[in-house]
Amino acid sequence: MKTKLKKFTEFSKSILPNEAKYLETQYQFVDQEKLQIIQMVIANALSQSTRNDFDDTIDKRKYSYIKDWIEKKLLSIDVDATIGWIMTLNQKILTDAIASNEEKEFLNYISSYKNIDFTFQNLYELAKEYKSYLLVRMRYKDHQIVSDFIKTYTTHASKAKEIKEKLYTATTEITNQYTLNNNETKHLEEWLLQVFKDDGINGKNRYQAFVLLAFMYTNYSENDKLKVLFDQIDIYFSQGMMYSRRLLSNYYASRVLLHSKQDEFKEAEFYGYLSIRQNNSDTLMYLNNLVAILLRNNKPEKAFSLLEKHKDLYKETHNYHQKIGYCSYQIRVLSELQKNSLAEATAKTFLRKHKNEVLKHRWHHFFTSYISTLIAQEKYEEVLKLATKFDLIEKEVERQKQNNYVPNISWSISLSRYMEGKINSVRLLEEIKAPLLDIQPTKNQKQLMIKVIDRLSKNLPEAFLKLKSHI
What is the pLDDT of residue 103? Predict the structure, then answer.
């Protein structure tokens, strides 16, 4: 490929599948070469494997034209861009800084407004603010345009406000179910589905209903319903509804979790890569999820490359939940690449700097990776020192009460106690069987437990291979 198409090729790689599906419904080019270019962009964006090269004999100006056309088409439906425009106008109205061309653009926008869209509530509130601005300046003609808009959509605005308040109440109930596990929320399902599917309701409320339904189905482990929900919003995105790259990234990241739960790790990896195409405040979380999938798919080299590429994001974040997640995966990836000394040094440095945050936020995630690399180096005494210093045995007892418990730390401590001569083989078998007595592991838990057993079997085959029969 010639260098002259390098920029366009990189641009085309940024096009997401749902964007491609939307663009496919929009183009009406007569020029055969322009048709060839846009069709290639769409085909490459929809492909999960191979990408075809662009024809470098076509006039470069046609590539520039297609690039501009794509950017304008996507910008015209981007709800984040529209919200940004509305917020900017609001600030300028409040500070008497709005320019005449900006006023003209806004008046034309509300004059031709036909369908309730994603940003309707923001637009309506701006119109009310602007109405007062115009009246004080005795601009009666423009004031009438805004008044007509407000009058036309008063009922819609009242309905949108009522739905927003009900959604807030539903959010409280559903999040309480997740954190406290103390109430049923099934009674909300039918209403939330109605809101989500009603194209007469503003998109922001519809999207919030989608988020709550996804949360609810996750709470109830109703993966089939979750997939139907995701497939429906996928259609909406492809039609240009509720679209922004931020929302698409969030959707792709949610599909990562769904497919991983269903052991569809190839699909999870595909959506994981899509989720990190666009940088936003959640990119580090999406990256951590993707690295976890790559490790499940036995691709530590790719995981390492991704972590290195996003190192600045990790250094800059103040979100310790994700910061600890990144470091934990970094330790694990280094260990899987047989760089255990570096993995151990990384863990020690991080723990020294962020001990309080580790213990407060994600102690189990961090110490699972740290202890794993110590076990790989047969540093059993170091494992026991960590267990004593940070009360890991007591913490593990408390963690056993959780539904997704996997006793990797507990087993590693028992192995270390045996290797250091603290307990005999009979006691070891009792200790490693104990965490399994009161649980009925899910399919996913069993898979994770078997992976832990296989890893620990390298150190003590006779004990841990016996354990498999108890799972």
Answer: 98
In the chain, what are the helix, strand and coil shares in percent, each to the nearest 5? 75, 0, 25
The answer to whether the beta carbons of residues 266 and 297 sit under 8 Å apart is yes
CA distance 83 to 243: 12
289 & 352 share domain: yes
Q: SS3 of 49, please? A: coil
Residue 38 lies in a domain: yes
In CATH, what number is assigned to the domain containing residue 290? 1.25.40
Using the 8-state DSSP alphabet, how is residue 308 labeled?
A: H
Cα separation of 252 and 248, whole Å? 6
136 and 55 within one domain: no
Domain count for the chain: 4
- The residue-averaged pLDDT of 137-153 equals 97
Are the C-beta atoms of residues 159 and 135 closer than 8 Å to each other?
no
Q: Is 1 a residue whose pLDDT tops 80? A: no
Coil, strand or helix: which one is 231? helix
Structure tokens at 430: 């009792």
Q: At what angle do helices 408-419 and 425-433 cross, to 10 degrees?
A: 170
- In this structure, is residue 468 part of a structural domain? yes
Residue 227 lies in a domain: no
Where in the sequence is the domain holding 146, given as residue range(s)? 79-152
pLDDT band at 434 (very low <50, low <70, confident <90, very high): confident
**Which residue has tokens 């679209």?**
243
Band of the pLDDT at 469, cuts 50, 70, 90?
low
Query: Which phi and psi (to 5°) does residue 117 adopt?
Result: -115, -170
- Among residues 351, 377, 403, the one where a domain terminates is 377
Q: What is the pLDDT of residue 471?
A: 65
Does residue 201 form part of some domain? no
Is 50 exceeded by the pLDDT of residue 308? Answer: yes
Q: What is the mean pLDDT of residues 72-87?
A: 98
Q: How many CB atoms lie within 10 A of CB 253?
A: 21
What 3-state DSSP class applies to 204?
helix
Last residue of a domain, one of 26, 42, 77: 77
Q: How many CB atoms lie within 10 A of CB 95?
A: 8
List the end-to-end C-alpha distance of the chain, in Å, as a whole number: 54
Whole-angstrom CA distances from 188 to 217, 234, 261 are: 11, 22, 24
**Mean pLDDT of all residues belonging to the chain:** 94
Same domain, 281 and 373: yes
Residue pair 267/48 in contact (Cβ under 8 Å)? The answer is no
Q: For 317-352, how does the pLDDT look when each residue is reduced to its tens digit (9 = 90+)?
A: 999 999 999 999 999 999 999 999 999 999 999 999
